[in-house]
Amino acid sequence: MTVSVIGAGSWGTAFACITAEKGVDTVLWARRPELAAAIGARHENPDYLSGVELPPSLTSTPDVEEAVGGAEVVVMAVPSHAFRDVFREVVPHLGSDAPVVSLTKGIEQDSLQRMTEVMAEEADLDPARIAVVSGPNLAKEVAARMPSASVVACVHEDRAAMLQDLFMAPHFRVYTNLDVIGVEMAGALKNVVAIAAGIADGMGFGDNSRASLITRGLAEITRLGVKLGGAPLTFAGLAGMGDLVATCISRLSRNRTLGEALGRGRTLEQVVGEMRMVAEGVKSSRPVLTLAERAGVEMPIAEHVVKVLYEGLTPADMAASLMMRAARPELHGIDSGASGVG
Question: Could you tell me if 221 and 281 are in contact, meaning their C-beta atoms sit under 8 angstroms apart?
Fold first, then answer.
């Protein structure tokens, strides 16, 4: 088995370590030759995982053909805004039956497509060759070999099982799921909620606020994800609640960290200008809201995050507006998120 991981950011690098440490031939593609050279020579990714020792067997290259040619599994780990362009470079070198796995948690801004939809469109791939890995995937913890669990989703059950076996490691437990839409939507949507959670942290709010945002955020994510074809139970599992909790509470979360800075009064331009890595929630927030509007799904937290990011709403006004929204009747005697209203 030969695995190619396209994208040498923190998560792509950490993921490549999983298979490399198992003795699987793994090559990591980095766009910048100097980064690829550093990874190969120093067994370290100085830009994105500084101080983390990489397996000596992990190789790196800036040449797409060298990375992908002959690979039996190709893993895409590039940001959503660059995904289509990079995948177009990959397509000519794909093996005829090689599965392609997306690690990217975002929505393409112009097309509003999930990354698996982008791959299917660009390469005319059979759905059985397309998979997605998602869950609480904080890269530094995975790279440090701390126990973590994730989901691999593919509509082809046997292929999902094959990928599960390939990616399973002593510190990385993998579950299978046939719900590609739900797993992928959960991964993209939780980033927007994490920005809101970070804003609350930056404003000095407490655990009640954080728990409320996570719970109501899960209601929003589930409403839209199910409306678009995902399975409700997916959002209660690792790809949904698990990833949401990790992203909303962890100091390692880029989206939460960005939100915290906004909550302390900094501007989006100031924060993004200082970040080396991409906070996917910034790019995905408006596409997510557009998807919700088209589907007729109410997402007040996402709506307010967009207003803070792009329309000048202050964090204080965001908090007041969310708290004083008009009350809606609760149906079925349960939290109104289950009824489709907020």
Answer: no
